[in-house]
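TICKET #2291
ISSUE: user wants both folds in one file
ATTACHMENT 1:
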Amino acid sequence: KQGSGALLAFAPVFTNLAPVANISGTNGAGSRVSTWKVADNSNQSTTGSGTAGTVDFTGGYLNALVSTLIVGEGESGASSGTGNGVGTFTFTAGTNNVNTLYLGYRVATGGSSAPSGTMNVNGSAVLVANNAICLSYYVANSGSTYASGTLNINGGTVLASTITNGVAAGANTTANISMTGGFLGISSLLGSIGTATAPLKA
C-alpha cells in the first residue's frame, strides 16, 4: 500500500493474549514467501511522493519464513524523482527466518530517491539471515544519493551469514548496527560484518 501511514500490527485488544503471526509460503510446510516488501515506492519514477510503512509485531510472536525481505524501497528506473520509501520492521518475540534482508533499497539509476529501512530486533526475538543482511543497497554508478540501513538489536538475537554495506567503498553515511544487549553472530566461516573497503558506519 502506498501512502504515508501503512501499518501491519497486532490489534491492541489482543496483545495481552500473546497473539501469534505465522507467515510462510503456499507450497506446504517449510515453504517461504518469495518477496515481502515494507514501504515499497518502486512503482514511482518521476515524483516527489514517498511512502511510509511500519510492521510492528510488538506484544506477540512472529514466526516467518521469507526468501527476500526488503524494508524501505525507493523510486525505480532512470528516476528523476525524490520520493522515498521509509520502512520500519519491529518484532519482540518469535523467529523471522529470511534468506536475504535488505534495509534501505535504492534501485533508481538516477534522481535523488533516498529510501531508508530499519529493523528492530527486541526482547527475545530472533532474526536469521541465511544468505546476507545488506544495509543500504545501491545500484552501481547511479549517482551520489544513497539509501540508509539500520539494524537495532535491543535484547534480541541476530544470526547472519554475512552483513554488508551495499555501497562500494562505504561512500554512504548510514549503514549502522546498534546494540543494547542481545547477541549478534556471523554463521558462515567466510562471513563478516562489513569489509575493509566497504565498512559499516557504526
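ATTACHMENT 2:
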Amino acid sequence: ALRCNDVIEHISVDPENVYFKDIDGVLFTKSGKTLIQYPANKPGTSYTVPTNADIVGTVAFAYNKNLESVLVLPDTPVINDFAFMKMEKVKSITAPKSYRVGDGAFYDCPNLESIVMVNSTMNYIGGAACANCPKLTFVLLPEYYAEFKGASLFANCTSLKKLKIPESVTVIGQQAFAGCSKDLTIVCKSGTVAESVALGYEF
C-alpha cells in the first residue's frame, strides 16, 4: 500500500516493531541495512542515504514528488530494480561505490540530468536502467566494467550528446541507444566493442 500512495509525507514505526524502523520518516529494515521506502511526498529537495545502509530497495524512491538530488554514499553497494524510477523532480543521482544497479533503476525520470556511477568493481547495470530520461546530459561510468548486458540501457535519452564507454566493456545490450539523438557522440578507443556499436548503430 505504501508503494502506491503518493501523498505520504512521513512513515512512523513503533519502536517495538522487530522487523522495521523509521529514520527521519523513512522506512528501513530493523538493522538499517535496507532502505525500503522514502515517502513519495516527503518535504525536502535533497537526501543522503545513511552510511550503514547496504541496499536501496526496489522502488524505494519511485514516484517521489519533491527530491531534486540523491546521494548514495560509498557504504551502499546495491541499488535494486526500479529504485529511483519516475521521480518527478530529481536532477542528479550520485552512487559512487554501488557495484550493482538494477533493471530500470533510474527509468523514466523526466528531469534527471546527471548520473554518476564510478565503482571500479561494478558488476551489473540492468536493462533500461537509464532509459526514458529526456533531460539526461551527463553520465559518468566506471573505468573498468565488462558488460552492459541489459537491453535499452540509454534508450530515449534524447538530450544525451556525449558518452564515454571504457575499453574494458566487452558486451553492450540490444537497443542500448534506441531513440537517442543523432548528435550523440560515443567516446571510445579504436577496436573496442563500443566502437563497433557506435559505427553500426542507426540512431
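RESOLUTION: both attachments delivered.
EXTRA DETAIL ON ATTACHMENT 2: The mean pLDDT is 91.
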